[in-house]
Amino acid sequence: MSDSEILDSVGTFLHRQLPPDEIKRRDAGHVPPYDLMPGMGELGLFALAVPEAEGGLGAAWKTIAQVQLKLGQHAYMVASIFNRVVGFGLMSVLNYGSAAQRRLLVPALMSGEAFCALALSEPQAGSDAGAIRTRAVRHGDGWRLNGRKSWISDALQARWLILPARTGEAHEGHRGISLFLVPTNSPGIAMTVLPKIGNNCMPSFDIGLQDVDLPADALLGEEGRGFAQLMSTLHYSRASMAATVTGASESAFQIALSHARERVQFNRPIGQNQAIAHRLADMRMRIDLSRLMVMHLAGLIDQSAPCRRESAQAKIIATETLRDVTDAGMQILASAGYSAESDMQRLWRDSRLYTFGEGTNEVMRDIVARELQLESGAGL
Ligand SMILES: Cc1cc2nc3c(=O)[nH]c(=O)nc-3n(C[C@H](O)[C@H](O)[C@H](O)COP(=O)(O)OP(=O)(O)OC[C@H]3O[C@@H](n4cnc5c(N)ncnc54)[C@H](O)[C@@H]3O)c2cc1C
Question: The pTM is what?
């Protein structure tokens, strides 16, 4: 299938399954789109990221990025679940899962039957992810987990948690961390939903882990290398977030543009005022830059080129573009945007998460700065 055929089928699916009223209904009722996942699986969307040798479609990341842009433009709720399956689940298991783990997870993830949530953050470990305290100790033939995770999105419905836990001593920092594949129905797991101000269709949970027993093969990858493994696949989730929020920016722009053409004040459309026209021009330029960065990064991923700096940059540029574009959009729509009925308010409200979610933009800037020193040969 060509990229345009894939994108057409995604468009048809979204218009049928998630018309505008349905998006509003789900947002107002906090109804996640988990029920749409088998349909997305049937379309082959999750298989795009899986190599042909593993039974997938082996698509280029440029194709995946275009799908993410389209999903994000239509409704972030569906883009976010796509990213969870691809960015965290499939990429982790494909990159460091054992043959048995790949046999178990890849078909389930690819079909949309199941997904994984990433359970990294803890109450005392947000940006400083190496400060996690959840501990896994050897117990019989397997492992026993104790600790607490917080703000874990979609955890209740996930079939597995990809969960970093400390297997070494605290003073070992990042090096004492291992990854585990934890079935969410394991005894000893208790989840409490966290009330929040946006992203209503992506519930987030506090998770208590008390004497959770896991078999030996729950270890994902190598013992003590969990942090390095996570870092080695983060560019996929940053690329995914950058693409989907760029899609959301496009949606905000289109709403603002239509409003500027249609809303008449002082006997002319408001878009004919330079103050509004320049705001729209700035929005357009920022979104185009963001899209270029997304596609540049996708090209690097396709070439297996180093892209630590570019993936951090793309995440910053795209999320700050969405934050600013939705803020400008709210100003252009004014009362029409402030209405609970408006799509702009949902985009604006939801956008506030992305400049700090999945790695704060301050941490992203640290990465960019560190990479600059590496490139110039200074500071090493
Ligand atoms: C809705 C939602 C969903 C989430 N989903 C998940 C999930 O599915 N899985 C998961 O594991 N986590 C999840 N998180 C957690 C998220 O990844 C963290 O919120 C994020 O990493 C930031 O951590 P924090 O909120 O503890 O902020 P903190 O780390 O406390 O940071 C607070 C502020 O200090 C700044 N700061 C901290 N250190 C530095 C520094 N060295 N230099 C400069 N500035 C610094 C930060 O940039 C930020 O501005 C979610 C969070 C939310 C709100």
Answer: 0.95
